Task: structure prediction
Amino acid sequence: MSIQRTGGCVCGSVRFVAHGEPARTLQCHCRFCQRMTGSTSYAQSTYPMEAVRFSGEPMSRYSHSSETSSKQVHVHFCPRCGTTLSLTFERWPEFRAISRGAFDDPNSVSISTHIWTSSAQTGVMLPPGTDCFQLARAAPDGSPQTPECFDTPRFARSDA
Ligand SMILES: [Zn+2]
Ligand SMILES: [Zn+2]
Result:
């Protein structure tokens, strides 16, 4: 039997079960994620679309045009409490992101990658041993970017 992780929103109206291991768990420091969460960043686990089953209240959806790719990003949230549970992407229709903070045990998935560190807020630390990208993991044309990996914790911004 494969591993399952459960989670849900603040008010409990939306629940989910995520099957198997996520392809990756990353933390995004882009301005969109900062505004969407009202926080420093958005940590998310990437799953194949069919690996996550939702139950309870149907989620509401907000669609946003990405400034960098002009592709749509869809934010899926609880209509009662507003918790963001998932993102889906026009650019990667076979995957969905699950909000790490919405898992019943967020620490059961570990962050391997930080992206958009160039727009990270002051005071944000990048842990050692993770792949850190100043922008996205791939350029708009799809070509992969090269991450930095640090030996010691460091501030994302030199003006931190
Ligand atoms: Zn809710
Ligand atoms: Zn982001």
The chain has one domain: 4-155.
